[in-house]
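G., before I forget:
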Amino acid sequence: MLLTRLLKPSLVAYKTLEKYHASTDEHFKARAIQVKEERAELAKHHIDVLWSDYFKPEHVQKYPEITDLCWKAAKQCSKVKQSLDINEAKTLLDLIDKIGDVWTKAGGPTATRMAKQMARA
Amino acid sequence: MLLTRLLKPSLVAYKTLEKYHASTDEHFKARAIQVKEERAELAKHHIDVLWSDYFKPEHVQKYPEITDLCWKAAKQCSKVKQSLDINEAKTLLDLIDKIGDVWTKAGGPTATRMAKQMARA
Amino acid sequence: MLLTRLLKPSLVAYKTLEKYHASTDEHFKARAIQVKEERAELAKHHIDVLWSDYFKPEHVQKYPEITDLCWKAAKQCSKVKQSLDINEAKTLLDLIDKIGDVWTKAGGPTATRMAKQMARA
Amino acid sequence: MLLTRLLKPSLVAYKTLEKYHASTDEHFKARAIQVKEERAELAKHHIDVLWSDYFKPEHVQKYPEITDLCWKAAKQCSKVKQSLDINEAKTLLDLIDKIGDVWTKAGGPTATRMAKQMARA
Amino acid sequence: MLLTRLLKPSLVAYKTLEKYHASTDEHFKARAIQVKEERAELAKHHIDVLWSDYFKPEHVQKYPEITDLCWKAAKQCSKVKQSLDINEAKTLLDLIDKIGDVWTKAGGPTATRMAKQMARA
Amino acid sequence: MLLTRLLKPSLVAYKTLEKYHASTDEHFKARAIQVKEERAELAKHHIDVLWSDYFKPEHVQKYPEITDLCWKAAKQCSKVKQSLDINEAKTLLDLIDKIGDVWTKAGGPTATRMAKQMARA
């Protein structure tokens, strides 16, 4: 399920930043920066995969906004890496929500066993 | 969502084996073996993470079967790597279904934004 | 020098395919498929980096073809992975040449020490 | 030799923490946290491999404590990652010593060339 | 082009150290240390590859200084990792320049398409 | 224990080749080639680390043969990757034995807890 691969690391980056700002423990904060870095990079990788592997010419024709959304989301991942501002992580989540809308319209989720697991969850 | 990380690569391993047996293209088959290898290894890694990070002593006390299920599932990943028999991949999926049952009972899915995405899916 | 990171692995993929077809040694051929796979994946990664990190809105405005070129090149990497047809690897090289033209027009190469090394080479 | 793969990174984590506390150099300390993180993760990976690949049902039947030891050791690796307290690293070493006892009883070391090297060491 | 793989990460390490010392932003500085670490490690890897894969006995016979240059450069990468002193990064660049001289004399650059790209750059 | 990191993967490469030649199972053989490739690469990496990190100028002065031994061993790893000939893997083991002799003379093994584990093994 391609989209969870975008959303999960982005959410972890967001929550890690929340914890970072709530903490006064320098060791914890150093580790949080590292976690944020890795997750934002991971989200970026999966945005690239979504754009260049999943979306086909017919998708882009029908939903031309997808190119710009993926581009902005990928660049936003870099901003999350560079910043401690939680608004940057929030902006990333919002962009992924928008990508998720297109992905769903494009017929994203189909695997039935996965769907069953999801429903169960 | 830890469980999708188990299920997704296991499903890919299963489906890759299906395609392997349906194909007569040697290049495709060589690549399929590689995909199966990587996905089974990935599933194994996430089973280990589930067992050693996610499950707490109180889970194991309440659902003592979880230890044996994770152990068997991890070993089953190795069998999937070693074999071209699709039944081995099927057995792995069944074990993950059982782990999924315990995980759900143990209160697995909680993240609301993820849940929304899942529902949408 | 971002562009050499695209071109080098793509060239290796191309040449590896040439050697693959010229060889009758099964061990060599199995290893060649693996090399092709890795290099095409590496090229794909660096195309994604070029597109989402290097190119800025002003580049895309001035050279709107860059989006489509990067997209096609990334998808072409997947074709190189899936195929033994050397024409697919040739098509990838041609796409990278076109990306290289835009990149040069966009002011790509600037680092002077690198440039000196390049000149020396 | 599976056990050295557990012990070596755990020892490095322990010694790195010693050096961390003995140092006043911020750059060194930042790097030490990183080293500790990686080594504890590596130890954790090899504990998982030992548990899910090396130990067979007959081992677990004969030495039922092995499951709990591996589980605690894997969780202890996470504690070493999260903490600057050297006692956490010491506890990990003690757990690995206990795993080592079972592993030796279970017939762990057999490769003769390795044994020769070990003896020489 | 093997040599760019040495030079590029070494240059990034050098420039990252420059930026580190020019900055007062703790988050930026923590990330800069990480970048320096990774790039110096990458340079080290490619120095090892150059030495053990590229250079042949006839090169070493003709240019016996290459062994010592590669050895010193590899060790210098470790110093760059351990230090915030920009002179260590400068020393690494100087050693790579010397390796570059030998490499060029040894007939390093040959790939014509690469050369064309380089010229264009 | 640096030397086990050289010896273990080299031994696995050797034994994997033995099993490769003893087998008629094409799936097993494809996986064996992959294992051999990875282990030879791993051995090569650790030979490079031994040479460029562990050995100091005083070692090289006292045991000048170490440079040539490490160089030959690293190149031999590439031969093991390229070949199905078990003699190549045997040659690698012999070179590592010779490196082991120097390493022991150079005072290699010192960590006492490791030594205890080794003795126990």
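The helical segments of chain D are 2-22, 26-54, 57-62, 65-82, 86-105, 112-120. The two ends of chain D are 14 Å apart (CA to CA).

More on Monday.
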